[in-house]
User: What shape does this take?
Amino acid sequence: MTDKKIALITGANKGLGYETARQLANQNIKVLIGARDETRGKEAAEKLKNEGFDAEFVLLDVTDEKTIEAAAKYVEENYGRLDILVNNAGIANEYGLEPGAIDLEKIRETFDTNFFGVIAVTKNFLPLIKKSEGSRIVNVSSGLGSLTLHSDPNSFYYDIKPLAYNSSKAALNMFTVILAHDLKDTKIKVNSADPGYTATDLNRNSGPKTVAEGASIIFDLATLPDDGATGGYFDDKGVVPW
Assistant: This one.
């Protein structure tokens, strides 16, 4: 057990997940590096520990219910609660494919990670989240999940139309709204974060924003004060339209 806040970040062995873990650890928060690859997950945790941070690897594949259940049991037995959950793990597997040409299996694969995986992780950890005083849940979405921005010809996102990825993030945003409503009478805050076009492996490092810049809104939502928002959708400039 520890008096520190406990944060679990999925897909935390690299990119936005790793940087989010680093920013949280820099605030004296113990970070649990959720990753499906044991070698990479342990390397990421060790790298943070070498910087003086309190980090630990936890095997967690968001598409594998057994690893989710095992991770939740481990956190319960060792920490008894979870103060911060960052649902960061995500995939994009349809580069160059037109919406009408994408295989249905690719859509299912994307939803398994980006949507169903988030629900599975949250469901299993919610009892531990409820044991914390004022815990935070951050679902890492994207501006590509905004129906409003996709419908606006003047929007940066107007011509970016990967079917599976965009749809999965729009669905994730709905989960944020519904979960926040379900928990509205608690101190738990639930929000969607739009990191912006950040250079990560997800987009072949093509984004103009650094991971530090992209992770800033995730960090802010994970550390909201008691009077902070819930059920919202935010980037580093403020509210993102649904």
